[in-house]
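Input chain follows. Return structure tokens only.
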Amino acid sequence: MPQTDLPDGTTVDVLIRLLDDAAPVPAYAHPGDAGADLVTTVDVEIPPQGRVVVPTGVAIALPDGYAAFVHPRSGLAARHGLTIVNAPGTVDAGYRGEIKVTLLNTDVAEPVRLQRGDRVAQLVIQRVERARFLRAETLPGSHRGEGGFGSSGGWAAAQA
């Protein structure tokens, strides 16, 4: 049974089913990595500004209180403009189907070619809290208030 290393040295057991005989068990490239690599089980070419859903050949069973999040790989993003459309994708504890990744080629001119076995995403396992939503007529005040998109600045041109 694979184990996910947590910062305090403990692990959470995650059951995994390999749906493709050649699919590897997700693995961490380096000690301390947050994400375990997921690979594509198909050859695919993603046209400029195109998107495609690729299978990973794995299904998992997470314990209650956990979720898995599918994140883009930074190297693919930097070198090829490849990202994940719904990043991070959420895998709920109750989901038992194949983890698939919706890739987007943001390059306007060059296609991205991936081969079976190429690492395409990272799977991050996290403990999650369930919320109890309590209806209220008003919300308590805060420093930020209702300031939304761009309200904290951070872009020099907006200051001019």
